[in-house]
């Protein structure tokens, strides 16, 4: 398989941009910008997130059995880039973003347009990103979208012509 062609073809899959957050069993907060995300079941409501296996967010979600998925909206490129590196808590903010703890303890980012809190149902440990399957236990809608809900989500293509992940 040609590596360049593989990369181009796999980058044709459209991705939204989200911030996964979790509170570790040690009380440390973790967060990461993620884009390998989809809903996989209506009943029970399940979402899956591809999370880099060696990330702090993966460790915190695995240990605590809980996480939140914060949906970023159009124009929130700054928040997406803020969570490309390990999260820092300073002055009551998580990587510069105001937040509050969700019912499951995971940070809910105030500026995100919406969020779901999840209980880890299973982790499929294959490849460099493990698939975390989460059962949705709570939802938060901070800003009602105008028009189609899926059109409100920040997308990978909104981060610039030279920003890619995948392939």
Write the SSE topology.
Layout lengths: L2 H8 L7 E6 L5 E6 L2 E5 L4 E7 L3 H9 L1 E6 L5 H6 L6 E2 L2 E2 L2 E5 L5 E3 L4 E11 L4 E13 L26
Antiparallel strand pairs: 1-2, 1-5, 3-4, 4-11, 5-10, 6-7, 7-8, 8-9, 10-11
Describe the structure.
- GO terms for molecular function: FMN binding; riboflavin reductase (NADPH) activity.
- It holds the Pfam family Flavin_Reduct.
- Belongs to the non-flavoprotein flavin reductase family.
- Keywords: Oxidoreductase.
- Residues 10-152 form the Flavin reductase like domain.
- There is one protein chain.
- By secondary structure, this protein is mainly beta.
- It has a single domain, classed as Pnp Oxidase, Chain A, CATH 2.30.110.10.
- 14% of the residues lie in helices and 40% in strands.
- The strands form 2 sheets. The protein has a 7-stranded antiparallel sheet with strand order 2-1-5-10-11-4-3. Strands 6-7-8-9 form a 4-stranded antiparallel sheet, with no helix packed on it.
- The longest helix has 9 residues, at 56-64.
- It is globular and about 45 Å long.
- The protein starts with a helix and ends in a 26-residue tail after the last strand.
- The mean pLDDT is 92.
Tag the structure with descriptive keywords.
167 residues; mainly beta; Pnp Oxidase, Chain A; 7-stranded antiparallel beta sheet; 4-stranded antiparallel beta sheet; 3 helices; globular; Flavin reductase; FMN binding; NADH-dep_flavin_reductase; riboflavin reductase (NADPH) activity
């Amino acid at each position: 398989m040609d590596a360049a062609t593989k990369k181009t073809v796999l980058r044709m899959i459209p991705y939204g941009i989200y911030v996964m957050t979790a509170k570790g069993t040690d009380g440390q907060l973790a967060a990461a910008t993620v884009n390998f995300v989809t809903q996989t079941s209506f009943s029970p409501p399940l979402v899956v997130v591809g999370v880099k296996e060696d990330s702090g967010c993966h460790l915190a979600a695995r240990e605590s059995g809980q996480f939140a998925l914060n949906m970023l909206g159009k124009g929130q490129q700054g928040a997406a880039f803020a969570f490309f590196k390990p999260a820092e808590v300073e002055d009551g903010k998580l990587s510069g973003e105001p937040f509050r703890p969700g019912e499951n303890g995971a940070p809910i980012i105030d500026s995100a347009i919406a969020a779901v809190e999840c209980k880890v149902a299973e982790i499929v440990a294959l490849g460099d990103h493990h698939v975390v399957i989460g059962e949705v236990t709570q939802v938060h809608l901070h800003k009602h979208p105008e028009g189609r809900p899926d059109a409100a989500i920040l997308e990978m293509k909104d981060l610039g012509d030279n920003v890619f992940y995948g392939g």
